[in-house]
Amino acid sequence: MRRGFSGRWGTTFSPVLLAPAVLSLLLFLFVGPSTAWRPWPRTRLNGSDPLFDGSKKYEGSSEFVHLRYHMGPVLTNNITVHTIWYGSWARAQKKIIRGFITSISAVGSKHPSVSGWWRTVQLYTDQTGANISRTVRLGEEKNDRFYSHGKALTRLSIQSVIKSAVTARTKPLPVNPKSGLYLLLTSEDVYVQDFCDNVCGFHYFTFPSIVGYTLPYAWVGNSAKLCPGVCAYPFSVPNYMPGFKPVKSPNGDIGVDGMISVIAHEIAELATNPLVNAWYAGPDPSFPVEIADLCEGIYGTGGGGSYTGQMLEGGDGATYNMNGIRRRFLVQWVWNHVVSYCTGPNALDQ
């Protein structure tokens, strides 16, 4: 057990001596939420990082990756996703995102399916050997169309938005710390701290000193106006990648189709590491490398580096790699700790 943690200037603080509100703030600033550096791929291998180097027998595989279980809780109960729609959202945009979430547990979707992708996440267990739940369902929703906390949010003010949703006088979101996930989605005219600076979304847990409860949550932003080349790749391509052409998005909305993979990334990591003390690689929980981080930019067989891997193309020319309920999606793969490489339902050897 760590008895203290170091600040930016090397000072060691004792949590026992800190007031709860101050401790929560320091944990957030120094440990920070798990960040999705998504979904555009690395243009070169990080030669100084042993987590991503080594023999690549399979997509994303490395003999140096040691993803371990650190005895924290994972989500073994049926998972309910409570959504906060912050800002201005069109009905069609909401339908795409709802369609993805409900597809995670769908039975009978055409192969390769979103539910097939989730089966890799289900392989992860807690200390009793119980697997992560097969069931992921939509919960209650809250609309914040009047930007109650403004159009520029900090990481801490995101928790205040969640507090407003769970303590609202009318139709508050239910509080369910054991199996609820709280998904804050910001519209294309909202800027969040560090958004577009390689950050497309992150997950963490709320502080009782701010929200009143410890709740696993994720934030994902719509990058359509601010940085589609960063957060909606490969439906949009950044300027520093000349010669790369964007592909057609499967649901006709570049911003929202780009969000889908980031949402998937965060839900997978929330399920396996909700309090940042369960499944991750690396020696330091302050900077955990989680099951989706290990497979960033990989959407199919052969993926790695600047190549997305083998994807599918529909009759309408749209690019995708898995089927949901009456929709298609492009979702990154996740790390399979049983075989020690990235896997997905559209793998050519399945």
TrEMBL record:
Pfam families: Phi_1. Signal peptide: none annotated. It comes from the Eukaryota. InterPro entries: EXORDIUM-like. Transmembrane segments: none annotated. Keywords: Apoplast, Secreted, Signal. It is found in: Secreted, Extracellular space, Apoplast. The keyword Signal applies. One of its GO terms (cellular component) is apoplast. Belongs to the EXORDIUM family. This is Protein EXORDIUM-like 3. It comes from Punica granatum. The lineage of its organism: Eukaryota, Viridiplantae, Streptophyta, Embryophyta, Tracheophyta. The gene is LOC116198054.
